[in-house]
Design brief:
heterotrimer, A mainly alpha (374), B alpha/beta (409), C alpha+beta (576), B: 409 residues, alpha/beta, GMP Synthetase, Chain A, domain 3, nine-stranded mixed sheet, 13 helices, 33% helix, 29% strand, elongated, C: alpha+beta, five-stranded antiparallel sheet, 19 helices, 14% strand
Amino acid sequence: MSEQKIGNWEAIALILTIIINHIILELPKDIIQTTSSGAILNVVFISFVALGIIFLICNLLKKFPGLDIFDISKFLGGKWLKLIICILFLLYILFIASTLLRSFSEILKVIFFPRTPIYLIMILFFIAIFIINRLKFKAMARANLFFTVLVLLTLLFVFLGNLENFTWQRIYPILGNGAYSTFFSGLSNLYAFGGISYLYLIPPYLKSQKDYSKVAFISILSSAFCLLISVSTLLFMFSPVLIKQQIFSLYLAARFIEFGRFFQRVDAVFMLIWLFSILYYLSFAFYFITSIFKKIVNLKNSKWCVSLFILFSFGIALIPKNMLEVIILESSIYKYIIICLIFIIGLGILVLANIKRLCIAKKKGVSEINENFY
Amino acid sequence: MKTFIKYIIIGFIIIFFSIAFTSTHNIQSIDDISYVVALGIDVGEQNNLKVTFQFTKPTSSSGEGTSSESASSIVDSIEAESVDNAVNLINTYTSKEINLSHCKLIVFSEELAKKGIKEEIYSFTNKVQIRPDTNIVVSTTSAKEYIESVKPSLENLVAKFYVLLPNSSEYTGYTANVELGQFMNKIVSKTGQPIAILGNVLKEDSSSSSSSIGLSSNVSNNSKEDSPSSKNGIENIGVAVFKHDKFVGTLTANETLSYLITTGEIKSCNISIPDPQNENNAIDLFFTFDYAPNFNVYIINGSPYVTLKIKADARVSSVEQISGRTSDKEIREIEKSASNYLCEQISHYLYKTSKDLNSDISDIGKYCVKEFKTLPEFEEYQWLERYQDAFFKVNCEVDVESGFLLVGS
Amino acid sequence: MNFQEKLTNILKSVFESSEKNEYDFSLSSSYMQEENSSDYDLTTEKIQENQKLFESKNIFPSLAVTLEYINVKYNTLINSDIVVREFSLNARNKQYNAFLLFIDGMVDSKLINDNVLEALMLRNRSNIFEGNQNQIINEAKTNNIAVRKIKKFDLEDYIFNCLLPQNSVKKVTNFEEAFSGVNMGNCLLFIDTLSVAFDIDVKGFKQRSIESPSNEIVIKGPQESFVENIRTNTSMIRRIVNNENLIIENIDVGKLTKTKCCVCYIKNITNSDLIAEVKYRLNNLEIDALLSSGELQQLIEDQNKYSVPQILLTERPDKATKYLYSGRVVVLVNGNPYVLIMPATLVDFISSPEDSNLKFQFANFIKFLRLLAIVITLLLPSFYVAISDFHQELLPTELLFSVLASRENVPFPIIFEILIMEISFELIREAGLRVPSPVGPTIGIVGALVLGQAAVSASIVSPILIIIVAITGIASFAIPDFSFGFHLRIMRFVFIFLGYIAGFFGIAFGICIYACILCNINSFGVPYMVPYGPITNLNQSGFFLKPVWKREKRPDYLNTKREKSQSHISRAWKYK
């Protein structure tokens, strides 16, 4: 296998891409839906919680440099635990990516191609993913960096361009639907940071393991920032009642942007840039799917594997009958799956592995464990 | 051989795919679409809607090389159950497909607006083609008549005329620039109520419009005579007030100005105030509103008590008597008169919206929300219903800074 | 003549067709097969064996044999410009048979006459010693015993040291070296009894003089360009580099042509792995003939699948030198005024040698324009197609109506219209290049002005489209590197197609893959999109230039031996 290490910035961009794409689509809407005017408070709150979790993960992973969650679970529970975790993560990424693809294709169909059947739109996506996956992972990560910067700019632009349409008073009542819904049941909005799951996967790809915590913190901080500005854009622009009825709210917000009389119809350009980011999101997802698959079955050559999973995903994406089902899937079912998988199972494995390591270390002494490990 | 087969397969995929993809949209090309610039909706017979479309037909004047487009507009109306139905029907008459993505104006007749236009507004918001910056007009006459009477004199393009006309609210203050997105937001809002631009067709003989422009009875303002707007055939003066989605009344130009001041949408305008020295005279002041209006809402015994503070700068632009206005005392007097005048106008407007119309169009509710900690509490209070019990205290502060070029004014 | 004969004659002349006598030339297939069919029955190996017998490596001591060998090798009987001049050589009063071998037209006859033939043939004072007399070098007497240091007469050394008043003489022992010298315009001296030949540099062929560069024009900057002769080129580089650390290594490429290539680098700056890689690639080219640097570029590029150029070609010595000092390798090819610079990244292809000569504000403005030009060249036509087919709502209403008005009478769909115009624009460009130079400008005027005007007034195309094609064309000229511009011109058509298929979605599809491919390419171990992907010291080597006194470091990605190119305070005068 060739050298597939990526630099810090590329890694940060990777995590950001994963989170931002959900932000572009449904995330802010879901958050506002559950917490209404308390959304900003809720976002700040869950960002802090997420940062705390990242702190925990970084510290737990410090003892296992360069290993991803699968290697750690192998260390913890042997081959079978690794297999289970691999399959769980594989299915998780596959399903999330497929639904994201489905919802974005639906939106594309509504906005750009009212007469084109949805599977054709999806096939075009898949061709792109297939071609991009034939290239090196390094190249993907590097190219993604440019587009992530662009996408960040668009989010900022949507925020700044709409400043004059904002009604700042919409932040009141500050607690939204009440403290309980903002802080306790709103905690489930932590699934916004589903990109953390990729933080479990990237350690083997990082050039320098020392920078892992830097990567994790910067990426989560900046995605929290993105979440904050897009949630506030929506909250200040539309009344929460309206947001509940919208699909793709951020695009609707982008339609309001105008500078003078000439630059007033720029939403298609936003779509163009968001398309870049969606394409790279999917490419990453499929890259990781194939690499997990490779781990399960010990494959060497995985070039054609991706086409297999593309077909899989094509099927999965076509399962929901309409947009409403997709939205329900995203906002209710996946929400809890993500929380379970990432914040309970993932953290649990890390904690247990650390405990096991400590136990072995006590028994055998520190030097041997290290040998044993590498 | 293997590569050859590979190329054949790739080529086949490309050809197949491009055909599959393009064949689904080949009707969409720019040439095959006609663009609606204005939509009018009237009440038709038998519960139907009468939808009026205005197209422009771009024709390049075939001068040598130069193609200056002048758009002749075509107005066509049709009766149908809904707007979409009307679009379908009109597609059967026109050779080109109708596209609403450049629709600048949606006109509702007063009659329809009184019935409620929620369904139409929702279906417009639901459409990808209709943009949220489309202006909403309620016409005192039928929408068709309104659209037919539009005769832009300064522009070649009707569409440009439609875009520019509501912009005048920024410097005249006689109407508001109401857009679809805003309207939709207000319809579902729990804190405020929507408004629309009030449109009126100018008849040949009547120079007085529906709303009297004179600021107050004793200060006459003769801006009506020979105003260029009369050539347009239409005028947008005043505002149509809605309660939820139903038209409940109108605001005069003066009240519209008050509305704009209270929402902070106006930045500068000319206002005539009564001369403190001579009751029969008027002084024109050029106001600039640099500060947002400062609302405070208190709930006293269940009914809202609204205080409003307005700060404005003004410059004297025209007075009848040039002499004798230099002293500080005189200027203070003008200030006082201006403040009083503004307070009077605004509280008149506020009480009108509260008591007569019972519609919080200034979105005062959003200042009230602060008083509540959670949304359910606010919803329980039912601001929109309580608005008619509101009391207002308006406090205006006007700084007069002499004239423009003539210091002594 | 009776009637019957007449009739048959007439009939014959009418109906009789003569034997077909077409001129039917076909190249005979490989000689091997012919010989196979004959009785000789020579297999390929046998032929090679025979040839090996005939191949001789070392020069024969006997002059006659050598002469015979050369006659056969050079086909002197039919090769008109090979000159073999036989003469007798005078050395120490002895005469030896000798001959000169050179190619007429490639040598300077005056040089041969004056410095070679005259010195060898005429008697002069130092030449009249006795034949084998030993030369006393020095003599010392101690205790009446004379110790003499004597140098034995050696013809080879004698000729080399005393008889060839020429600055560049090499002794060669094998024919291969000897012939390559002759082919380059040197003159070979063979002498009887010696198994050594003398390679005398008497090159005197006509060559183009140094002119100002024709294809990479700058306003502020040196106005000289490389020529065909490799030595002139190396001398130009050396003159500008002006440092003894500049190494110019020779490598011959091509099994038959033995084209001289020079690998230039600055020893204490350039990364040694890079040098080794370049030399490795050059040394392992199994080709018969190498005729131009363009061929060499294609032969040693990393990825030939994509049309992206990965090696920079330049005709400007100052540009080459600039890159040498930044730690790159320059390869010169004999007979070509273009040199190769490697590794090259995307940033290099869109910067011009003029940039560093200008104030950084000007340079950055121009660079920004170039970036714009790239975007326009690549995407403007496709955006036009996409917008007019899919995203009409993107156009401001007034613009939309002017587009509509201009397209009113045009019968073609937009994709067809734009393809017509783009292709005819490319045709005009190509035709303008190929026509004889006096006609060239006319083609441009006729093509662009008359055709465009006529097409518009005939309502074949819309004026807006002419504007778009013209802007695209102008923008493509603003890209400094020819091959990169070419690449963009090709990619433009791909994007037009994608824009036609799926509008912005198609374009996004294309851009994503294109960007990924660009990031995937390596040029001699350097990622193509560096310093942006991966990010390496962006401050020092980014696309936009810093002020000249702040360009302190060499590009990080080249891993140079000398990291800094100027000290932290380069304008020391200011802070003294």
